[in-house]
């Protein structure tokens, strides 16, 4: 069995070892960091650069995962390989999107039946990319599965480094709440979907405990035994444009479908268990 990953980054790096343990061959694209991709057990291909080899891989693939973000010109995979994908016959096709497509719910709950109403440019680009993939899937009978990911954290992507360096901020915006997902849970959901394909399905990937971001920072500081950073009002926080844009949306995301349809039991159902695992992995 062969998996092709477009944009073999952080999340794919945790899925790849699970597939290899089952005897799969995994091919992953990268712009330049072939060593990082190879370290996960995947075979790296440069994109751009190895387009002919990628077209051959598309034709062979038993499964295809798209983890490349849309750019100014739309979805980059479709821009380069739509015709090849139209002729492909994978048993499973996954697209990694974001819960940002739902926009701002004022702290309320959203699920997969909620109509997307993105409030940011990135969210609008994701809605357009989802629609483009769905159009291609309908036109050519491709088994597309859309995964809307909440904020991703895991080893190397937690708050501990900034807390140790004294640069972490406990930003407070009244009413703000986020959903999150540990990267290992992303990998297990994708694997469960590959095992139980349901063409056309959409899944939210998040844990069971949406929470204000300042609570997560405070919890991490307590785990480290360092002072909890003082609260900083959102209006006064030192945040770049990307970080600030995350605060445009406040919502709680439901994850019932990954449990009922895929039988997933989250390894890290709340931020405390996720932070404990991240800290243990980073210390190791």
Protein model, in words:
With 284 residues, this protein is of the alpha/beta class. The protein has a domain at 2-154 and 180-207 and 252-268: 3-Layer(aba) Sandwich (Rossmann fold). The protein is built from eleven helices and 13 strands. It has helices at residues 10-21, 34-39, 51-60, 76-87, 121-140, 160-165, 183-195, 213-224, 241-246, 256-260, 271-283, and strands spanning 2-6, 25-30, 43-46, 63-66, 92-98, 109-110, 144-149, 151-153, 170-172, 180-182, 202-205, 231-233, 252-253. A seven-stranded parallel β-sheet has the order 3-2-1-4-5-7-11, with helices on both faces. It has a two-stranded parallel sheet with strand order 6-13. Strand 4 (63-66), helix 4 (76-87) and strand 5 form a beta-alpha-beta unit. Helix 1 packs across helix 7, helix 4 runs parallel beside helix 5 and helix 8 crosses helix 11 (271-283).
Largest sheet: 7 strands, parallel
Structural class: alpha/beta
Q: What's the gyration radius in Å? A: 19 Å
CATH topology grouping of the domain at 2-154 and 180-207 and 252-268: Rossmann fold
Please outline what is shown here.
The protein is 40% helix and 18% strand.
What is the strand and helix layout of this fold?
Elements: E1 2-6, H1 10-21, E2 25-30, H2 34-39, E3 43-46, H3 51-60, E4 63-66, H4 76-87, E5 92-98, E6 109-110, H5 121-140, E7 144-149, E8 151-153, H6 160-165, E9 170-172, E10 180-182, H7 183-195, E11 202-205, H8 213-224, E12 231-233, H9 241-246, E13 252-253, H10 256-260, H11 271-283
Parallel strand pairs: 1-2, 1-4, 2-3, 4-5, 5-7, 6-13, 7-11, 8-10, 9-12
Helix pairs in contact: 1-7, 4-5, 8-11
